[in-house]
Design goal:
With 155 residues, the protein is an all-alpha fold. The chain has helices at residues 5-9, 11-31, 40-63, 66-69, 75-100, 108-140, 146-154. It is found in: Apical cell membrane; Myelin membrane.
């Protein structure tokens, strides 16, 4: 299959690439700390790794133009649901990670990495929020209403 270079320059492609990079930073920064001693970081690790892998899979699928081959699946709706769930779960992960950062940590490098992971989790949360908005607009037809869609469908 041919690579879709237009996808890489699209807002969806750019946001998915950004989400993959920032999501990698979140779980890599946490993985380099003693996160296993704090139960709350387990949730943040789960959310960040799960959505990092899922976003990479979707990115590769769109890059290889596989949604066009599986036209039975309502891909715009799938993207809306995926991005909405990712946004909601990243909100919880961001809050959990931010609350769990303690400035009185006995290991200063753990504090710095956890604070950075919290910052990047917030950025990933925002990018998934923007993706949710854009994918919702694409699913709904970019602002078209029922009257225009009826006219164009039957003309």
């Amino acid at each position: 299959p041919a690579l879709d270079s237009a996808f890489l320059c699209s807002p969806l492609g750019g946001l998915m690439g950004t989400q993959a990079v920032l999501g990698l930073l979140v779980w890599a920064l946490l993985a380099d700390t003693t996160y296993h001693l704090h139960a709350e970081y387990g949730w943040v690790m789960f959310v960040s790794i799960f959505f990092w892998v899922a976003t990479l899979l979707l990115f590769v699928m769109y890059l290889l133009q596989l949604p066009q081959k599986f036209y039975v699946v309502p891909w715009p709706l799938v993207l809306v649901i995926f991005n909405m769930v990712a946004t909601i779960l990243y909100i919880t992960a961001f809050i959990t990670c931010s609350v769990a950062v303690r400035p009185t940590s006995w290991r200063q490098w753990d504090y710095n990495r956890r604070a950075a992971a919290s910052f990047f989790a917030g950025l990933v949360m925002l990018t998934y929020g923007v993706s949710t908005f854009l994918s919702f607009r694409a699913w709904k037809g970019l602002g078209s209403n029922a009257a225009t869609s009826q006219v164009t469908n039957h003309a």
